[in-house]
Write a structure and sequence with these properties.
globular; six-stranded antiparallel sheet; 25 strands; about 350 residues
Amino acid sequence: MSDTPANSRTFLEERTGRLSQIGGITPFVHDGSKAKGVSTLRVRTGRGLEFWVIPDRGMDILEASFRGVSLSWHSPTGVTHPAYFSNRGIEWLRGFFGGLLTTCGLSTAGAPSVDNGETLGLHGYMNNTPAEPCNWTEEWKGDDCIFTISGKVREASVFGPNLVLERTITTSLASSSFTVKDVVENQGIAESPLMLLYHWNFGFPLLTDRSQIHVPSVTRDPSTPVSAASAERWNLFEEPQRGIDERVYFHSMRPDADGRVTAVLVSDRERPEFGIALSYDASTLPEFIEWKLTGVNHYVLGLEPANCRSLGRKAERERGTLQFLKPGERHEFHTELRVLEGAEEVIEAVRKTAL
């Protein structure tokens, strides 16, 4: 019997031909339909977490699962090549694949609007802009192998903004979580609006009619009369219904001692043994939007840390909360997604959200 500690680097390398046998990063390109030519990086950890990063779509994340159980919602559009993108009105929705993470921004996010004479479409350009370039590494550090994906996404136009988002996604072979670090820099010659909204999308079978949200919110403002009508059930779900409208709530969160906010989604509140915890730095992402839609074919929960609300740039300017970046200025943003496995992890995560 070997004296080598189980799950050490030596132990694993003695029993595998290469790292890809148990985890790692695998690049591939979609070949078919409107997704043809879209590059993707498949990330797998030894704990059973898998997610797909799409460099050609703003380094956002499509597929996500844990030990074969899907975490994310996939919209009817599927993956589309950014060549199909249109920023007119709400045509952004024609390429909204959902997925685990869709990033909205950079100079505008939220509803279409006309701001200072500029016509702006839904949710901006970020999700439909390819990274330039995108790199990835697998690097052993002690007995764990660190997986890192990094790249830059630029939103630029003549006489317009020149914003660059540098994204780094990090996980490891031993992990059931990953982090997203974004640094946005204004490389232009004029001050630019900065709107950034992280559209995390959770779906079945993680999300069910028995699911429950736990967040440290002090107040919850419904965005529409439809949202207000069922505000007492903001954190609960029902079976899919035909003809139901989306419901949106703006949360005011209380950060913990480290200045972070954690939102927890429990898959089954009657058997709290599986869920996710989404945490972020509240100092740079002061807003939190809950997007709840329990429709047939559109059964999805959006948990959305942001530096703005989702009402559009004109509304943000009128509220006096529109953020700006001066030339050469940089802002940094941190988010983390963690899978909660087992009752102990779920209960402890929920406990920490209590005010």
